[in-house]
Amino acid sequence: MKTFLILYIVLVSMSLLARLALLSFNSGYPRTTKHTRFEDVLAVVLGSGALGWAVWLLVNYHG
Description:
By secondary structure, this protein is mainly α. It has helices spanning 2-25, 37-60. It has one domain (2-60). The radius of gyration is 14 Å and the shape is elongated.
């Protein structure tokens, strides 16, 4: 169960970071999505936080 949770957190964080990367690459063009800057910042914070939690659990979980 713990392994499934870690994998889920990693997948969610990777999807958020991938969305952020696409937005940063497309920043020079007119935005086709309706996302606001707050949602972009939220995606970064949630993605990095979830990735940090997953790494911490992988390092510190001994069971």
